[in-house]
Write a structure and sequence with these properties.
heme binding, membrane, binds protoporphyrin IX containing FE, Cyt_P450_sf, transmembrane, oxidoreductase, three-stranded antiparallel sheet
């Protein structure tokens, strides 16, 4: 290459520098206007900023209240809203069914690739539908209710440990108990037991072990924000040049202590390249599946799926239990009815020492309270996004072009008045007991839907059905600040703080 040919672009740059800056400044609004106006979505209502850029979404997640922003957006603009130049949010359960349904060709967007670990996707982060189906096929057995039932004795041990801790707090007159934190610790310790047969020790230590809850929250802030503009991930987490800046915690957070503990368990079980016999927890069952299918499932897949449980299963279950307790305790009439039902079952000798899943199914008001909590405050606060198939598709009876992003948010869907009633904004468990609730049940998306329906729902439901009535049965609770809303922010999951209660042990 001659010196002249190298100099020419440099020379051009130097002599046209100002013109180039000016062109760039013009390009931004021009691009904004182009995206706003020249688009098959141009006719859809929505915030001005959202129609020409992804800044509205970024800002919303950065502020931590996307769930409320989406509710307000649909209240203002109607059931179909343009959320970004190529993205539409839908408020109706009928639309959600179309978007999430199995076999309609909608697939997860690149939003999900911004969750760790980028080079070894798990069931949640794998966006290639073929690979996802394969991973899920092997995980369905380990996550089934039947498999989970076999792990109940370990779950009960964790439940007893929680009760031991709460007994201690209840014994001190006037002591404030941060029930939200204890439920969070419980969810982590149960997960350690059922996924890895490791007791993480949150309950034993009565604290966030190794700052794990905090670091998962930090990581999810990053995931949620960067996930709104996925190419940004290549600028930060996936950028090899930023290796030099690894001292910045959000660029290279060290794996939380519990992840290291779980890794220790994986290493222990692989001896001399062979799996050793261990408890049939999630990891153990996945390793067994790997041995029978070495050509289909790799070691890396096993590790990804088992570790995916920590990210996907801890905050989600904790958040749902916190919402349940917060809502029930905020509505005194509901709390009284629930107490009455559970104490009557206790008196009638219908409850075991540690309440079983089957016994909890016989508590209709409790079931109604649980469903109503998951309806009003689902644990996922961001929108679930899918790409419309290349040839386009009908969503709620209207055609949308291929390649655009279709989004649904449980906080919006679950407030659909035609489905849940005119008082859909109100916590009223009775709605589940007034006649046929099947249509409402079909329109609940707290666990997502279709081929990406939450794989951990059996575990979460088993855990919550056992521990929540157990707590109401054993203690009388009172909110320390009955008028104060529960503090929360949405990264992907709704992370909640401040569920402070007075707690008294019942005489039973
Ligand atoms: C009450 C507790 C839980 C709630 C509310 C919940 C909610 C959800 C939701 C809404 C999705 C769909 C996300 C989407 O499509 O964008 C999902 C997916 C998933 N959840 Fe859960 N989850 C809970 C507990 C768990 C647990 C305990 C685990 C594992 C131990 C788990 C593992 C997963 C996985 C792996 C996926 C991805 C499924 C797929 O794409 O096929 N979840 N969850």
């Amino acid at each position: 290459m001659s010196t002249l040919s190298l100099l020419t672009p440099l020379h051009f740059l130097k002599s046209n520098f100002l013109a180039l800056i000016f062109a760039f400044i013009l390009w931004i609004p021009a691009r904004f206007l182009y995206r706003r106006l020249v688009s098959p979505l141009a006719h859809l209502p929505g915030p001005l900023l959202a129609s020409g850029s992804r800044v509205w979404k970024l800002w919303s997640v950065y502020n931590g209240h996307t769930e409320t922003d989406h509710i307000n957006l649909h209240a203002k603009y109607g059931p179909v809203v343009r959320l970004a130049p190529d993205e539409v949010s839908f408020a109706s359960p009928a639309a959600a069914k179309d978007i999430l349904a199995v076999g309609k060709g909608f697939r997860k967007t690149d939003f999900y690739t911004c969750f760790p670990i980028p080079d070894n996707p798990d069931i949640f982060t794998e966006i290639d539908e073929g690979k996802h189906a394969l991973l899920k096929r092997f995980a369905v057995g380990p996550y089934s209710l039947a498999s989970m039932m076999k792990l109940v004795p370990f779950m009960d041990e964790v439940g007893r440990e929680l009760i031991g801790k709460l007994d201690g707090i209840a014994g001190v007159e006037g002591r404030v108990c941060d029930l939200g934190d204890w439920l969070h610790y419980f969810a982590f310790d149960v997960l350690g037991e059922v996924a890895f047969s490791v007791r993480f020790g949150f309950l034993a230590q009565g604290k966030d072990v190794g700052g794990c809850i905090k670091s998962i929250d930090d990581i999810q802030w990053y995931d949620g924000i960067v996930g709104q503009v996925p190419p940004l991930d290549y600028l930060f987490r996936r950028n090899p040049l930023l290796g030099l800046l690894r001292f910045l915690p959000f660029l290279a957070p060290s794996p939380p202590l519990i992840v290291q503990m779980a890794f220790g368990e994986v290493e222990k079980r692989i001896q001399g390249g062979k799996y050793v016999d261990a408890r049939k927890d999630i990891l153990g069952q996945l390793m067994e599946a790997r041995e029978g299918n070495p050509d289909k499932l790799t070691d890396a897949n096993v590790v990804a799926v088992a570790f995916g449980a920590i990210g996907a299963g801890s905050d989600s279950t904790a958040s749902t239990m916190q919402s349940f307790m917060y809502l029930v305790l905020s509505y005194q009439d509901v709390y009284k009815k629930l107490e009455t039902e559970i104490l009557a079952a206790e008196k009638a000798g219908q409850l075991s020492d540690m309440i079983t899943y089957a016994e909890a199914q016989q508590l209709p008001y409790f079931q109604a309270c649980l469903k109503e909590s998951m309806r009003l405050r689902p644990a996922v606060g961001l929108d679930m996004q899918r790409f419309v198939p290349a040839d386009g598709a009908q969503i709620d009876g209207v055609y949308y072009p291929g390649g655009i992003r279709a989004s649904v948010n449980g906080w919006v869907l679950h407030r659909h008045q035609e489905t849940f009633g005119k008082d859909a904004d109100v916590f009223r468990p009775e709605r589940w007991l007034e006649g046929d609730d099947r249509e409402m049940a079909r329109c609940m998306f707290q666990f997502g839907g279709g081929s990406h329906l939450c794989i951990g729902r059996n575990l979460a439901l088993l855990e919550m059905n056992k521990i929540l009535p157990q707590l109401i049965r054993r203690y009388h609770f009172e909110l320390v600040y009955p008028e104060r809303p529960l503090k929360h922010h949405s990264t992907f999951f709704v992370v909640q703080k401040g569920l402070e209660v007075y707690i008294r042990k019942r005489e039973i």
